[in-house]
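User: Could you walk me through two proteins back to back? I'd like the raw sequence and the structure tokens for each, with a short line separating them so I can tell where one ends and the next begins.

Assistant: Of course. Protein one, sequence then structure:
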Amino acid sequence: MASHNPKSETSLGEDPDCFLTNPDKSLVPKFQFFFSKSISRSELKRVLSSNPHALEYDLDNRIVPGFNFFKDLTQCSDYNVFLAYKNCSSILTLNLESILARNIAVLREKGVPESILVNKLIVHPRIFAVNPEKFRRTAEEVEKLGFDPLKQYFLIALQAFIQISKSTWERKFNVFKQWGWSDEDIISAFGKYPRCMIFSEHKISAIMDFFVNEMSLKSSYIADHPVVLSYSLERRIIPRCSVLKALLSRGLIKKYSVCSLLLYTEKQFLQRFVTPFQDPYFLKLYEEKQALSH
């Protein structure tokens, strides 16, 4: 059982730099363990600052076995184990065998590819830290909706159902409905690109407003191409669409796809929409709009 040390917890929360520099003697072995895994001081500070309770657990009975269990379970590197800790520090104090391992077993039973599973576990470990019965039920519901466990969207849909509360789902449904989407449109968009329900209501509204009111697109276009909601409005959508509008106003292009425009890499975008027209105005416009995002 962990011994509670409120002094350690308070010190870490108030001054993590000082705490790591002059730690309590009982904590030195714990820091040494993480440093032995090539974890930097700044990275360790970030994780322990967000979950100081981790230091209350015994090194030999909990911290080391937990670290090794996670590594064996995922067959990943020491650094990736710690990366998972950075992305969700609560797994440091989670009973991995009774919760994490059972949830991973559910996905392996369904045939989720190991590479996709391990990547999601490292980047978004929080979705695995839920009650195993709830996790299994949710995974089955996602599968019934038609998501293929062999594809990465299965885990993204699972993440959405686990992370988003019922009230938040309802609010996001209402945001889309305000732009004329039907229930069927929303469900269809979620099926095509489940991340669309993970984005904040503010992001969804701002992007919908720009496309409908600034670009004169029908909201149904976004429902058909929900991936466009994934891009940054300031850094990608506005700069590229500003160039597009300038080209259209000068009659330099007629056919275009906003979805393709946003999907292109930076190099591809410049090659297709800036360089061919040999006018410095377009590059200047693009760079000015990008600068506004900084």
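----
Protein two, same layout:
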Amino acid sequence: MTGRVNTVLFVNINTNPQPMNKIITIAACFFCIAVFSQVTNSGKPLSWVTENMEDLEPVTMPQFDLEALRAEDERNKDRADIPWRFGYEFLVDHNLGNSGTWHTLPDGGRIWRIRYRSAGAKTMNFLFSDFYMPKGATLYLYNNGRTDLLGAYDAQQNNEQRVLGTWLVKGEDIWLEYYEPADVAGRGRLEIFKLVHGYRAASDAMSDDQGLNTTGDCMRDVDCPMPDIQAYKDINKKAVALILVGGSYFCSGALINNTNNDGKPYFLTANHCYSDPALWAFRFNWISPNPVCGEVGDSTSNAPGFYQTSSGANLVAKYFYSDFCLVEIPSQLPALWDLVWLGWDHSDTTPASTFSIHHPAGDIMKVNRDLDQPLPSIGLFWTVENWEMGANAGGSSGSPLFDNNGRVIGQLKGGSSGCNGTSSNNLHDIYGRFGISWEGGGTPDSRLKDWLDPAATGAMTADYYIRPDHPVDVELNLESLLTAFCTDTGFATVNVINAGTEPLQNLQLSYSVNSGPPQIVSWTGNLMHGDNFPLQLPPLNGIAGQNSVEISVVTANGVNDPNTSNNTVSGNFNVLHFGTGNVHLHLHTDYFGNESSWELQDANGALLYSDAGLSGDSDYEYDFDLSAEGCYNFIMSDQHGDGMCCSFGPGVYRLTAANGALIAEGSRFGFYDFVSFRLFNGLSLAENALQNVNIYPNPSQGLVTVEQPGSNALDYVVYNVLGQETMKGTVAGQRSVLDITAAPDGVYIIKLEEKKTGRLINFRLIKE
């Protein structure tokens, strides 16, 4: 448009609008909500399965003095006492309100996307100064070619500081995509304050994995054979992680055990790696399956896009003088990652020999071996005079030093070791002594003993900890929860993972909608340890509004699952119902109202009402007579592709039903906002009356009161968790008593049906 300048910070929108006749095809789509506990590049962003998502012009980052950074890196290349820098940090100020583009889905959910391009970047990662995910919301990061995907980040990454640091995504053109369900619209917070341009990571000729083969030829992959420590090495490598600290630096560290042997996720690294740990990110088990052992050659990664990553930690204790830092990872680390918590020895006894496991320069996991005793010659540190095999580099900082019994005795402070061809350069490294850190500075926040010996047992050593294996152990993840267009039906897909040691050959799952009677789904097959498969449940019958779904393991291989911590998942899907009659549209245009237009269509795409050529900064009110039951589509369009808010005036639209209920509202979108809704002639008074029924006390010992505002006859059926009917009958009057004292203690579902209307309501009851 002549005379118009787009002033949205860093955002350039594609001004080629999508043809309106293509929009209607959205009506045939299902829309998916993906839910995951840890960030392991699972699932797919919603935009990948949604038609007619508009392309976005990227936010283009400026050039910077790369040669100056490389010169500084060259000066620091032999220093193991500082974190290894891989990126240049851009400060930005982008959030859900001032940047990016919104897209509204037919079920009322919304997608927000923003795209960044930084020429020459090998990777990008992002730091959020405000991060909050409401339940059901997800965040994905992926490159423009969709060859590298990270996510989903969800509510389990929320923390008290409301900040987050992501892992790396490969490429110079990266998308961020946030999804929020309709019932939590507007509650999420994303404030991007730092974008990191990864200028060194993988060598130009190498694979997908950032950092692979960045170190010297004397380095040995962790699976290289070392017979005298092989057993210890094969265990301890499962505790070590590469850490992304400060947004643009790498360090190493490891999970460490405590005397309670409870798998509390304490993680030990170096104090000189410290920055706000809430912004850290961890990558576990990055190990080459084809090890290169101190020779010319390139390591390979364990899988393309293999990520076992977790974001965020809380500071527990740190001490400058022995250079230790202990943090706690607050989120659940999945059992299938097969992690180990390291043993330790704080006796300060000089061991016969040592070894170390680390990620030098952000490379795939390596191992060092020294066949001699370390020297405690510098009061606070162990000195490894030279490594017979391997060497350290920047990024190795914080990695554990093990004695000849495989126990931690220190963490890397710094040193001068490195490669001289395929051999070590015979220079020393120093490690903060675990025995010094045990007492530290004499306070809980500056020493280890309060945390690693919480019961004050006085133990000098602890062995490693592995979470117990169960022959039968089924883990469930809710992979997707789908709402079919203009129906009351939802579709759920659950990801079934065999975390047990035995093959999984049969499975019974129980699922219920809105705490209704449980339904049973059976599966037979042969699922080996660590394998998984998607299991789609039968269609879920919902009611108007938000519907809850809970899915649980009943039996696996014919027995109860002994590990119940990962047996149950839940989620919500929405059914949009409104009464027939007058539907009202309130519209306030932005300063360029002539760019705005809208259409109201029936389910077949036939045009019912429309308007265009509007004035700027003006109010419009419209009433639509929609007396026929059925589905309708409302489409709000903006010719310029920047929605109706906020750089060019506070535009907004608001669509309400006959009873004043909000159908949809919006302002921040791209070329269009698309909303589908259903009108019906409902028995709202009867339904409302049934919604006011109450059952108490709950939990109870078996005598429960059913209270209702009227005195209608209600049929009831009581089900156990297997969906088996245990009793039934009829109650009437405002207060009635049900007696289930003869039933065993447990969880029951009470289904009430109003005889006059046939409407249903369910209650979950606990008998104890």
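The domain at 474-575 is CATH 2.60.40.10 (Immunoglobulin-like).

Let me know if you want the two compared in more detail.
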